[in-house]
Amino acid sequence: MFIQLRSIVVEKGNSQQVVDNFGQEGYIDGKEGLIDINIMVNRKAKETEEVVIMIRWESDEVWKNWEKDPVHIAGHRNKKDEQRPSYIVDSSVNMYDVKKIKPGTFGK
């Protein structure tokens, strides 16, 4: 499994805009190998708010196929000249190879 974690820090009161944006139906939803997308808001944020988007893929290979997808590339190209919203303070992206999954024991 391969996970992409995107963290977007926004000015207080703006996290819902990011949640709504990433929560929309899109081309990615039908991509083979996509497991799921989790959109989370950090409950402990004080002066700012943090939205974390976790995208889980079956493998690094299917993620790479998504990155090379012509529709995905065109979407980024079309947004290249757009200015990022002023309420975004910072953003980062990290990639993780899942080495082990430990299932819970609830209900066993």
The domain tally reads: 1
Specify the CATH class: Alpha Beta
Q: In which range does the helix fraction lie?
A: 25-40%
Q: Report the CATH architecture.
A: 2-Layer Sandwich
Regions with little confidence, pLDDT below 50 for 5+ residues: none
Say how many strands there are.
4
Strand order of the largest sheet: 2-3-1-4
What's the helix count?
3
- Give the averaged pLDDT, no decimals: 92
- Main beta-sheet strand count, sense and barrel state: 4 strands, antiparallel
What is the gist of this entry?
The chain is of the alpha+beta class and 108 residues long.
Describe this structure in words.
The protein is of the alpha+beta class and 108 residues long. The chain has a single domain, classed as Alpha-Beta Plaits. It has three helices and four strands. It has helices spanning 15-23, 60-68, 70-79; strands at 2-11, 34-41, 48-57, 88-97. Strands 2-3-1-4 form a four-stranded antiparallel sheet. A hairpin with a 6-residue loop joins strand 2 and strand 3. The longest helix has 10 residues, at 70-79. It is globular.
